[in-house]
Prior knowledge:
Layout: H1 3-10, H2 17-29, H3 41-50, H4 55-61, H5 64-84, E1 86-87, H6 89-96, H7 100-108, E2 115-117, E3 120-124, E4 128-129, E5 132-133, H8 137-143, H9 150-158, H10 169-174, H11 179-187
Antiparallel strand pairs: 1-3, 2-3, 4-5
Helix pairs in contact: 2-5, 6-7, 8-11
Amino acid sequence: MSAIKDVLDRYNVGLTEHDLAGELDAALRSLQHPGSAPLSAHELEYLTQHAGEGTDEVLAQWDPVDEQHRHAVAVARSVKDLVASSLSRTQAAQQLGVDPSGISRRIHEDALWSFKVGSRLRIPRWQFAGNALLPGLAEVVAAIPDDAHPLDIAAMMTSPHEFIDGHTPAQWLAAGRDPGVIVSMIEDFDRW
C-alpha cells in the first residue's frame, strides 16, 4: 500500500490515487510557462534602477528554482484544500439524510454545485447549513459558470465582502438574505 493511498483511506475522502494524481498533474501543469525565461541582465539592471527602494535586496535573494518550488507547494496545498473543503456524493447524502441518487438529482437540476477531482464528484461544504442546503442555493448554483474553477468559487463564497455587510456569501444565504445579490456577484466574477 502506498503512502498516498494510506492517507486517502485514513481520511475517507472517496478518491483514488489516480484521481488525486490527475488533479495534481493538471494543477502543476499550469505552473509551466513555456515562453517564460529567467530575467536577463538588462532586465535585472532596469528593475534595480527603477523599481524602488529595497529592490536590490529582493533581486539578490530571488531564485527562479525556489520560486517554482514555492508555486508547486502552493498548488499542492490548493489541491489538498479542494479535497478537504468538499464531500463525496455519499458523504453529502449522509449529511442531508438522503440517498446518493438524491445528491445526483440535485446536481443534475442545478440545485447543488459539484466539481470533479479525477473521475470523482466533489461537493463543496460551503453549500450546507448543518443538515440542510443553504436557502436560495439553487438560484446561486444556476449562476455559476460551467468553467468556474472550484477554488475560485470557494474563495468567493467563503470570503467576507464589505458590500454584503462584511459577511461571506454563504453566511448571507444561511441568514435567509436575498440570493439575487450573490447571483449578481457571480455574474460579475470574471471582472474580479
